[in-house]
Amino acid sequence: MPRVIVASRMSVRPYTLVTDSAALGDCLETLRGQPLIGLDTETTGLDPFTSRVRLVQFSTPGDVFVIDCFAFGALEDSRLVGLLELPRPIKILHNAKFDARMLERHAGARLRGVFDTYLASQLVEAGAHGQTHSLRAVAERHLGVAIDKRQQLSDWSGILSADQVEYAAADVRVLLPLRAKLVEKIRELGLINVAKIEFDCAPVVARMENAGIYIDRVRWEALCEVTERAHAILRDRLMEDFSGAVQQMALFGKAEINLDSPTQVQDALHRLGIPVEGTRATELQHFAKHEIVARLLEYRTVAKQLTSYGRAMLDHIHPVTGRIHPQFIQIGATSGRFACMDPSVQQIPNAPEYRDAVRAPEGRTLVVADYSQIELRILADWSQDTALMKAFQSGEDLHRVTASQMFNVPLADVTKSQRSAAKSLNFGLMYGMGAQGLAMRIESSVAEAERLVHKYFSAYRGVEQWLREAGEQAVRDRESRTRSGRLVRYEFDDEDRAQTAGIARLGKNVPIQGTSADITKVAMIELDAALSGTDAQIVNTIHDELVVECDESIADATRDAVERTMTWAGQQFIRSIPVVVETSVSVAWNK
DNA sequence: GTGAAGGGCCAC
DNA sequence: AAACGTGGCCCTTCAC
Length: 591
What we know:
Layout: H1 2-11, E1 16-18, H2 21-32, E2 36-43, E3 53-59, E4 64-68, H3 78-85, E5 90-93, H4 96-107, E6 114-116, H5 117-125, H6 135-143, H7 162-173, H8 175-188, H9 192-211, H10 217-241, H11 243-250, H12 262-271, H13 281-285, H14 291-308, H15 312-315, E7 327-329, E8 339-341, H16 352-355, E9 364-371, H17 374-383, H18 386-394, H19 398-407, H20 416-430, H21 435-442, H22 446-459, H23 461-477, E10 479-481, E11 487-489, H24 497-531, E12 537-541, E13 545-551, H25 555-573, E14 581-586
Parallel strand pairs: 1-4, 2-5, 5-6
Antiparallel strand pairs: 2-3, 3-4, 7-8, 9-13, 9-14, 10-11, 12-13
The protein binds a DNA duplex (12 and 16 nucleotides) through helix 12, helix 14, strand 8, helix 20 and helix 21.
């Protein structure tokens, strides 16, 4: 053992272990004069509410400082907090969200001036398959150096081994050269704007995760109980309905049917003479005249509610905060959209009974704000289609206007089914939907769907042209860009027509979906800054919607700030038509 | 037992 | 045969 320590001591450059206030002063003196510093932390666990910060490490081109927060009150030192909160020097971190959560929780610091090598790697790789973005992988890819991560999850709460401190020093040392390589790529690929957005967003996401979202346990449990009863009743009745089929199946050794098994359900339906092809809801709907199929559809809905949105949600309530702290993945989709997990609070059913249970605690309130038709506005702005722009400038109901233009009828004479067809086209065409897809969706013949698509594009020539060119360009250049310059690269075999068609669809959708993500991220950054110094806090982001929680006494001011910053962010990317943000103030997540 | 794949379904 | 984009969660099935 001693041998290993000696050997590794000799093989690495020195570092300074900071264990008192005077040494911290010297360390901060050195750091303040730097334009760029590496920053990392070692913590006793991964959860900011139950773990402590043991080490804070800084690097400069010539020095590494390892601050032992257990040796003295480093995290209470206002000089350290001041350095973290100033925009300069720039702090280089790998996955800044993690350290920002810890530093906010334990030092009360609002981290600013971030360069995040994790996010930078994701931007530079632009969605390439099979690339991971761990510090180890990124350092190996760009610097050709191997990093030993064996100590990462070691016990950081006791007496530090030389190995541990050296690991901590090595980790932070690599960040400066790594940034240099990544900056080069960011410049080459024209990603400076989007990188700035992502880096500034990371501390905002950290605060959002730390804040968490409140769920009313009693309301949620009541919802679960209702669902459980309905589930039991439907299950029993379906078992009776299926008994004939099950008896047949029993001849083959199967005495029961699992209603949650699509294969078993299909088999049983076949035995009852119902020739379903798969058991998806859209397929079952065609056979809903059979009582058993109708009941199965009901069962599916309830089963989904019970499993995905049942008591499991309550297991996520944190014992320390009493709130849910989901994980937001900042570049969750290659388009730049967020993803969310453990639990995903982006996919809670949009039904009043569920949204009522997601609320503000006593004395507080929610401001809920979403962009009105943001993706279609992006399409209108990008394509400069005269008719679509005019439709938005009129301020009328968009789908109704579309129907009026498609079918050449006055606005007031648009029928329900005309509006519905227009709506399907407005949304579907952005995803690269064809006539066949439309026919499926609106349950018409393909010929009828073709006629509708033709009518749509006759009204919106500019949209047709933009979509076609966006698809062609994606296939030709093997990449797409959003308005912020975010890059998405495509790997495909251009001999494969199905793959090529898929890339063309992405080429239409990625710039639109991704620009929407750009806008939401800029809005979050601006809003977080506007709300600093108040008790208002962003608690959820759902693609084109933000949820803010604040004391009810500042609800109006908060709503104004939300509306102003979101509108402003939208206008940074959409210049030729209005950006509309709809806000509401409510104690629950209902609009 | 564990993990991957696929079906199904929730969100925008 | 494929058929509108981006995700995550839960279940069953099947291979190891």
